[in-house]
């Protein structure tokens, strides 16, 4: 049902389920047509993934990746949010850091991975740094943007009442910037997954990225696609949870 130009939640879920069925059917058609050399059928991937879990191979390679994602993303969020809030609030600091941050953000971070590995070595420290860099920049940029786009009339109103700075942060800046902060978290955490896999690709010997390469070298397409689908499902879950958190924390603005 369409109400005021918007779809009802039940209708949205119907469309999502219908699209998922369409993609699944198309997947089967392509897999059957091209053969297992290019794309495995979904049920074959599920069976291969389940067997890998039972053998302990899945957890063996998942744990190192989960560790570097947890540490690197936590550091990225823990530093990115306060730095973004500060940059967004202090005008001269924003103008000072805008160009360097944008230059660094537009630089393909994958090009820096070999240099990081040469300097720090092929270890978890370098992998955590890679995940941190993939996470922190989107968080800083979106958080700063959220603070700077808070309604200036509200800020002027707080100044007219001589409200202390902490009150301005608590009642105006943080609530107003929250949707942008949550968007930054979604982008940053999904980028963290990408950074972790790329770190595994380059550093090797452990992690989901190495497992994907291992299966690919054996021409085990079903085995290689299993970790890819797990990462995709993890990213989808993160985005869904953060959208739900945003709706609860700022129901007046909704989740973008």
UniProtKB/TrEMBL annotation:
Keyword Transmembrane helix set for record: yes
Domain ABC transmembrane type-1 intervals: 62-242
Membrane topology: Multi-pass membrane protein
Keyword field: Cell membrane, Membrane, Transmembrane, Transmembrane helix, Transport
Major place of residence: membrane
Membrane-spanning residues: 12-30, 66-87, 99-122, 128-150, 189-215, 221-242
Single GO BP term: transmembrane transport
Location relative to the cell: Cell membrane
Family statement: Belongs to the binding-protein-dependent transport system permease family.
PANTHER family found in the cross-reference section: ABC TRANSPORTER PERMEASE PROTEIN MJ0413-RELATED, ALKANE SULFONATE ABC TRANSPORTER-RELATED, MEMBRANE SUBUNIT
Name of the featured protein: Amino acid ABC transporter permease
């Amino acid at each position: 049902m369409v109400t005021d130009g918007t779809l009802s939640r039940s209708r949205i879920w119907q469309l999502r389920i219908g699209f998922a069925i369409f993609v699944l059917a198309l997947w089967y058609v392509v897999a059957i047509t091209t053969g297992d050399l290019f794309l495995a059928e979904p049920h074959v991937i599920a069976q291969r993934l389940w067997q890998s879990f039972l053998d302990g191979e899945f957890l063996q390679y998942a744990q190192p990746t989960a560790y570097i994602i947890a540490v690197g993303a936590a550091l990225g969020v823990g530093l990115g949010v306060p730095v973004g809030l500060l940059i967004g609030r202090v005008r001269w600091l924003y103008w000072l850091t805008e160009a360097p941050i944008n230059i660094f953000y537009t630089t393909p971070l994958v090009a820096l991975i070999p240099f990081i590995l040469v300097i720090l070595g092929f270890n978890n420290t370098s992998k955590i740094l890679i995940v941190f860099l993939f996470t922190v920049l989107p968080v800083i940029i979106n958080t700063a943007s959220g603070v700077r786009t808070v309604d200036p009339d509200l800020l002027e109103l707080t100044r007219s009442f001589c409200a202390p700075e902490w009150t301005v942060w608590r009642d105006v800046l943080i609530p107003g910037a929250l949707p942008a902060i949550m968007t930054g978290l979604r982008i940053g955490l999904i980028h963290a997954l990408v950074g972790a896999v790329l770190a595994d690709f380059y550093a090797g010997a452990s992690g989901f990225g190495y497992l994907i390469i291992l299966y690919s070298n054996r021409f085990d397409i079903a085995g290689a696609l299993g970790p890819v689908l797990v990462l995709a499902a993890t990213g989808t879950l993160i985005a869904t949870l953060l959208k739900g958190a945003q709706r609860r924390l700022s129901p007046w603005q909704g989740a973008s």
